[in-house]
Amino acid sequence: MVQYSNIMHTEFSLNTYQNKAQILEHIDKLGYIMGKTLTGEGLNFILKEHFVQSAGSRASEKVPQIAVVITDGMADDDVGPHAMDLKNQGIIVYAIGVKDAVELELRQIASEPQDQHVYSVSDFTALQSITQKIVQKLCFEVEEVISHTTQVVISHTITQVSTDCQHATVADIVFLVDCSGSIGHDSFNQMKQFLKSFVSGLPVAKHQVRIGLAQFDHQTYQEFLLKDHDNVKDVLDRIDQLQYHKGATYLGSALTFLQENYFTPEGGSRDSVPKIAIVITDGASMDAVAEPALKLRSHGVVIFAVGVGYYDAAQLRTVASSPSEQFLISIHDYQELQKVMDNMRKTVCTSVEIQAQVLAPKYAEVFFLVDSSAQSHIQAIREMLIRLANQLNVNKEGNRMGLAQYGSTVSVEFQLDQYTSESEVVDHIKRFTLTGSQMRKTGGAISYASHNFFSLEDGTRGYKQYLVLIISGKSDDNVMEASNVIKDQGVTVLTVGLDQADRVELEIIATQSYVFIGQCTQQIIQGIATADNTIDIKDTVKEKIQGISQMIVHVLCTTVVTAEPKNPTIVMPGKEPKNPTIVVTTKKPKNPTNVVIVAKTPPAPPQTSHCSEGSAGHLSEGGHNNNGQYIQHTKQDIKILFDSEKIPKVSHDCIQTDKADIYFLIDHSTSIRYKDFRHIKKFVLELIWMFRIGPHKVRVGLVKFSNSPKLEFRLSQYTDRESLEDAVIAVHQTGGNTYIGHALNFMSPLFKETMEDRGHAVPKYLIVITDANSHDNVEVPAKRLRQQGITIYAIGLKGANERELDYISGDPKRKYLINNFNAFIPMKDDIVKDICSQSACKNMLADVIFLVDGSGSIDSDEFYKIKRFINVLIQRSIQVHPDAVRVGLLQYSGTLRVEYTLCAPQTLRGFLQTVNFMRQLSGTTLTGGALSLTSQFFDTSKGGRPGVPKILIVLTDGEARDDVVRPAQALRRKNIIIYSVGVERANVTQLREISGRPSRLFMETNFDALQNLESDILPKICQPDKPDTTYKPDKPDTTHMPDTTDKTVINCSTTQVADMIFLVDGSSSIYPDQYKSMERFMMSVVDSMNVGEDHVRFGAIVYSTAAESKFTLNQFKTAEEVRNAIANLNQPGGITSTGAALRYALDYFGQSYGGRREKKVPQILFVITDGAATDPELLPVSSLEVLSEGIMIYGIGVAGAMMTELQVMTGGKNKRVFYVDNFDALETLQKKISKELCEDDKQNVSLRP
């Protein structure tokens, strides 16, 4: 074991310990070393220091070498070369990613096939959930390696399993081969070669694929049973030893022999494992085959039949599984066996996968939600629940059951994983009572169920989920939205109506027709009584509920936990059997297309006390004990959650936030679940780590509240980060109701203490976190706190009241409403930026001029929003004063108008009045000319001060009609720092040329979004980086430092003629703001090209489930037209059908759409996507079709895109593959892509007309 960060620490070597107890003892004592994430160096370290003989490696003895890498974030170094070095030494590498680990890096690290060696979990607590899966895979891998040690190692890869069979890992396969006299020695040898090739592509091992083989002529020869060989070498050796017998053909008796000797426990066949028989024959059988084949299939064996030459087709059709078109392979002679081998093995492995799905255990997760006002029926309800628990054989390893009641709120009796046995469940039900309620909020209860009943933390394991509602009257709230949400999550909802229950409402809530009420209930009882004579038919609620319980069992058992059919039929598209009655699985297999399993005859509803048996894995994380009390967690168990994760660095924006007082006010009422309270504490800790903690720097205090507030620790109590962390971890949740107003009042004197301690100058912040409506008024106490000068952030979880959050924060920008705890991450950054931006400018000294675009492309409403943005930016924290920050204002269009100069009276009021009364110019957009004229306004004669930083902020929404490069260079040479702010149609390339650095460029999709920039731009303006160079007028311009702007347009003079089409992913996985980032990226590419009818032409296609051309190569002739068209691309939503979209795009390079292939004009397709293709089987074919027409494909992947798919699309041209981790980073690719375009274009120069 090695622990790594920026240092490598050996915990123990392969030869350090000799037994498991010693290893476990060492692991228990592990320390946490912290530091950077040098994963590449870690891989190199274990290769050089641990997988060597001196450290205990036994590679020379052919002992399997395995590395398991666990990481939670992106590596700070290059992992690729070191991972390759490991794998080239024959070391099998598993990569386990936690939380923020990068999927692409994990795949780089792991061995092939990557889907079997890469594992990801959401956090460290979830690691336990994959332990068993990894252990099982490791055992299989070790066994497989040992069984292959004598084989030839190809490319340092141990296994030679066919890619088509990577998921067909467990099966019993028996070959039954004809050795009669009609075959001949040559054909017999060809058949042996076929068998060897076929078996070589399977993962043969004791716990994986077992192989058996029998020959037949007039008798059957047992060559080897399924139990005889546990490695592929022995199987191949036995095939080599097969003897040709000659004789007559008796296939029927041979099939019976297989059933009696091979597919039995004694022969090595296993329960619940896919069973395959492969029959190869070349003639007609002398005995009957239909009945023996039927008996074999009825035992769950799928039969493939290979007919050679002049075989009896009609006879062999009765042998093969149905449909015979799929399971009967016909060839002319034995030489053809090798040709059909790959396809046949793929089909066999597909069948194995499908059978495995059918045979896998299927259980139900059933949660009952009972109306607490149905008190008069409690005894009947108890009996119904007990009966269901008995019939479903409820236990932790099989079917699970949960119970809750509701009125105005929900009270959970027990979760799905709370009890381990049926007797415990029944004991609880016997004690179950209904509390009664004046309100019946069924909609709210269903919503609560969707969030709290069926997650991994709540005891579900991924099996079919059911919610059964027992309702005695009409709901006092709306049920439709909550019902639709929970059904969309895949939960099947059943409703049972008692007393005054509303039939229409029950039908709205329920899935399909699972509604039981009134006469319908009586009919159910009558139907059940026919099958079960023990039921008395009496028209009482008690008997109705008993009848309903039988029907619910019927529903559950016929849709989830039925006994599996002995003889499943594999149905290919268009060949469904007549009258199929029940779909057993609808999961798409990994290799075949649209294959489903159908049971020919569904089993009757179970009449025994058990619906299903078996075992299954268990994942749980509880927050209550069996008495419903909150479990008090300790400092130690929270340490596991935090210490194993990377500690956030102090925010760069907060370096100047040397003083602040921050109180957290956190809700710990009963409505917050145990695990959610842990997430709240984790958020508090991560926020603390973003600041410099100290008695004279940032101080933190914490108050928790429910019925009443409780001070956990004051601001002055803990003055270092470590003790503060311990204090947060020690905070316990005790429950209660939610009184936020009372808690806010409690905070007022605490903040008064800080004013006495540190005065009014230190900023004061309150961060409130709650999940529910307050039982008291919040508006007045929150307003009183803000009047004390306290900035309040209000964070609402799930059920929080949005209006109350508005009252608390007093500012919509400081209100956050989140549905899950993943949203804490961006919210944390927003709060930190907001706090820090207020402190960043307090000691600022600068001359700042705003240069505002007032051209006609901006309407009056948008111009007002620009003025509002300047107002907020200045008022937030910039101190306007002759001796602090001097401000100026210029407006331009086709001319420049001076609004406010640096020598004007420098008062905040005077400047803001000028901004507010500024009238829009209108006209064209000559940004370059405006920049040229702006230079003089920083001079001493215009109010500029020598030696004071000079800042220009340019705000524009469009493309300049003149050159901006030279005027911007001239400004920067005078040490003027330029920030460019673009909105909507602004030209990103021009903005970059103006600012000179990407870090000084800000872009928003619309004018409303300008307000989002305030917290981003303030720290940069108030703490500006160094100017690009120092201007020295006594030296020629050639001595100046080179400009940092992107010169792609100038340098890439060869990219003058091309046909370029954007193929843009518009699937549902992409958020609207991310889609806008894609549009801005496309615009940046357009801006870097010489667009024109005789130069570079552009087209665009947006795809998801289907593809649609948005504009063609011959539609637009100017860059502005193309940019406007890109800005109007609509996102369709849907799945990611990249393969089909590539094929669709091919036609749009044709002459009728403006393509110039016939004129030898280079043609380029940009594919921009964020995820794996949903039609991966089409990708290679479609890509080849496009590439074969001479079209170059550039694959641009974002976030979840598959690197391997991008490489397939580009035809293996890695230089045309570009990948970024997030959409914001897309715009940084333009320069790299333009450079590659130049290189490609240079190779095509001679081909141009």
Describe this structure in words.
- The chain is α/β, with parallel strands linked by helices and 1249 residues long.
- Helices cover 35% and strands 18% of the residues.
- The strands form 8 sheets. The protein has a 6-stranded mixed beta sheet, with helices on both faces. Strands 14-13-12-15-16-17 form a 6-stranded mixed beta sheet, sandwiched between helices. A 6-stranded mixed beta sheet has the order 23-22-21-24-25-26, with helices on both faces.
- Helix 16 (480-488) links the parallel strand 15 (464-471) and strand 16 (492-497).
- Helix 8 runs parallel beside helix 9.
- The protein is globular, with a radius of gyration of 36 Å.
- The model is unreliable at 147-159, 518-546, 558-653, 1029-1054 and 1244-1249 (pLDDT under 50).
- Span of the ends, CA to CA: 64 Å
General shape: globular
Overall structural class, as computed from helix and strand content, comes to alpha/beta
Query: Beta-sheet strand percentage?
Result: 15-25%
Radius of gyration: 36 Å
Low-confidence stretches: 147-159, 518-546, 558-653, 1029-1054, 1244-1249
Task: Summarize the main sheet.
Answer: 6 strands, mixed
| Helicity range | 25-40%
User: How many strands appear in the DSSP assignment?
Assistant: 38
Short description:
This protein is an alpha/beta fold and 1249 residues long. It has 39 helices and 38 strands.
How is this fold's topology laid out?
Blueprint: E1 2-4, E2 8-10, H1 20-28, H2 39-49, E3 66-71, H3 80-88, E4 92-98, H4 103-109, E5 118-121, H5 128-147, E6 171-178, H6 185-200, E7 209-216, E8 220-224, H7 232-240, H8 251-261, E9 275-281, H9 290-298, E10 301-308, H10 313-319, H11 324-327, E11 328-331, H12 337-359, E12 364-371, H13 378-391, E13 400-406, E14 410-414, H14 422-431, H15 442-452, E15 464-471, H16 480-488, E16 492-497, H17 503-509, E17 515-516, H18 518-531, H19 541-559, E18 569-571, E19 582-585, E20 596-599, H20 635-643, E21 660-667, H21 674-688, E22 698-705, E23 709-713, H22 721-729, H23 740-758, E24 764-770, H24 779-787, E25 790-797, H25 802-809, E26 815-818, H26 824-840, E27 846-853, H27 860-877, E28 885-892, E29 896-900, H28 908-917, H29 927-934, E30 950-956, H30 965-973, E31 976-983, H31 988-995, E32 1001-1004, H32 1014-1022, H33 1048-1051, E33 1058-1065, H34 1072-1087, E34 1096-1103, E35 1107-1111, H35 1119-1127, H36 1138-1146, E36 1163-1169, H37 1179-1188, E37 1192-1198, H38 1203-1209, E38 1217-1220, H39 1230-1242
Parallel strand pairs: 3-4, 4-5, 6-7, 6-9, 9-10, 10-11, 12-13, 12-15, 15-16, 16-17, 21-22, 21-24, 24-25, 25-26, 27-28, 27-30, 30-31, 31-32, 33-34, 33-36, 36-37, 37-38
Antiparallel strand pairs: 1-2, 7-8, 13-14, 18-20, 19-20, 22-23, 28-29, 34-35
